[in-house]
Specification:
Blueprint lengths: L13 H10 E3 L7 H7 L4 E4 L7 H18 L3 E4 L3 H11 L9 H5 L13 H14 L9 E4 L5 H15 L1 H14 L6 H10 L5 H14 L8 H24 L5 H21 L5 E4 L2 H4 L15 H8 L5 E15 L8 E5 L7 H7 L5 E4 L13 E4 L15 E4 L1 H4 L2 E8 L9 E2 L13
Parallel strand pairs: 2-5, 2-6, 3-4, 3-5, 6-11, 7-12
Antiparallel strand pairs: 1-8, 6-7, 8-11, 9-10
Helix pairs in contact: 7-8, 7-11, 8-10, 9-11, 10-11, 11-12
Length: about 450
């Protein structure tokens, strides 16, 4: 039998502990979010992160923040790291459009692309029903929306466009059919398409560019759902164009496919802001790797940019607030490999000397850190590991990876530390893990 030894905790860095306490306040109730609301002030972009895509408390605390931003500061929409077609269906339900579905639960079951649990979960059901109930009392122009920013939905967006054009604008339908036929040999498998374009000098780029041009020429003719319909048609065409570019670039490796994706998300966010008017305010929900400014991690060394960095660079500093999330231990929903069945997995104690470990050793309380009161000292500005769990996760291997070197008070404007977290509640039943991590799992290495 292999014996695991408990490792002695490193001594607390007194300077760092003292510095962190300057920025920290307790986090237990909605009222404890008031310092964050004050920090946000009149900002029009609030980006809320998460350290995993499968943690219940990240979703519930982002909901708490979002509800206060919508009710107290008049934010117009939530935009998430999700596919446009599925999220637009939820947007239609939230806004009470005709034939939009009987319940949020019914609509969310349409989220079929892996990882389904990211948005088809009980936490999003609760948020969507709250938004629907609130919107029922408001005129159309003041209803809060819910949209997807991501680029992955090439075929779903193409199918949505074809159905829409067949119904609403038959003269443009042939252009969509032409694009569909170009992709058809690849069986709706983006990787097969991507590999084919690597070895053969052929792609569907011209077809999707022509389709977008046709959609934009016809935008004034769209009437269903009012102006939202114009937005939906154009965005689906843009997703098809950008997804084709993304998948074609992905097979070559390197940072460019990541950058294409995050630039697409920022361009979509700006398109939504224009749609909602000159005073629009946006809440964004994405992983910390997209939300936290990449310049204060090792991502920049690899030539990668992200949403948080790009929005900061494009907007006035006081107009953007980036909020990160992290926890010390708990459980999570994830897969053991790409497209593997979802499972409830343990999250071991954070790696020694990571930000999560340092915050835990201050005491086991949840904390809100606001980085605007004092200039951080040298101890705060040293890069430390910051946990990042993806949709594919291996708890026993995480000490070898899953940590992004981070200057915390520069990467974010605020940070929610949750000492222990629990797994998300998917609408589909997850596969249980057969073996938990033992109590003797080392705190570091």
């Amino acid at each position: 039998m292999i014996q695991r030894l408990r490792q002695t905790e490193p001594p607390v860095d007194r300077d760092l502990d003292s510095e962190l306490r300057k920025f920290a306040t307790p986090l237990q109730s909605d009222d404890d979010l008031t310092p964050l609301l004050e920090r946000i002030g009149d900002a029009r972009y609030v980006l809320l992160g998460e350290a995993s895509h499968g943690t219940a408390e990240y979703y519930s605390w982002r909901t708490r923040i979002s509800r206060r931003l919508i009710e107290e500061k008049g934010f117009d929409f939530i935009a998430v790291e999700g596919d446009w077609p599925n999220c637009y269906r939820l947007n239609r339900y939230i806004k009470g459009f005709q034939d939009a579905g009987a319940s949020a639960r019914d609509v969310l079951h349409a989220f079929e692309r892996w990882p389904t649990w990211m948005w088809a979960n009980e936490e999003i059901v609760a948020l969507a029903e709250w938004l629907r109930h609130r919107n029922e009392r408001l005129p159309a122009a003041r209803k809060t929306g819910f949209y997807g920013l991501d680029v992955y939905s090439l075929w779903d967006s193409l199918h949505s466009l074809m159905a829409y054009l067949r119904r609403s604008r038959p003269e443009a339908f042939e252009q969509a059919v032409h694009a569909f036929r170009c992709f058809e040999p690849y069986g709706e498998d983006p990787q097969e398409y991507a590999w084919a374009t690597r070895f053969v000098d052929a792609s569907c780029e011209d077809e999707v560019v022509a389709l977008l041009a046709e959609i934009r020429r016809g935008a004034p003719h769209y009437a269903h759902d009012g102006r939202e319909s114009d937005l939906n048609a154009e965005q689906n065409a843009i997703v098809v164009k950008d997804a084709e570019h993304y998948y074609r670039t992905m097979v070559h490796g390197g940072p460019e496919s990541w950058n294409i994706r995050d630039r697409h998300m920022v361009e979509t966010l700006e398109r939504l802001m224009r749609h909602h008017g000159p005073q629009a305010k946006a809440i964004v929900w994405e992983h910390n790797t997209h939300i936290g400014d990449a310049r204060y991690t090792d991502m920049s060394d690899e030539g990668m940019v992200n949403v948080g960095q790009l929005v900061r660079q494009q907007r006035e500093r006081e107009d953007v607030v980036l909020v990160g999330f992290g926890s010390h231990r708990g459980s999570v929903i994830a897969g053991s490999s790409w497209e593997a069945p979802m499972a409830r997995m343990p999250v071991p104690p954070a790696r020694r000397d990571s930000w999560e470990d340092v915050l835990h050793r201050m005491g086991p309380e949840n904390r809100l850190l606001i980085f605007n009161r004092d200039t951080p000292g040298e101890a705060m500005l040293r890069p430390r590991g910051h946990r990042a769990i993806g949709v594919v996760y291996h708890p026993r291997h995480e000490m070898l990876g899953n940590y992004v070197p981070t200057v915390l008070p520069r990467r974010y404007d605020a940070f929610l530390y949750l000492d222990e977290t629990t797994a998300l509640h998917p609408l589909r039943v997850p596969v249980e893990t057969k073996r938990e991590v033992p109590d003797t799992f080392p705190a570091g290495v």
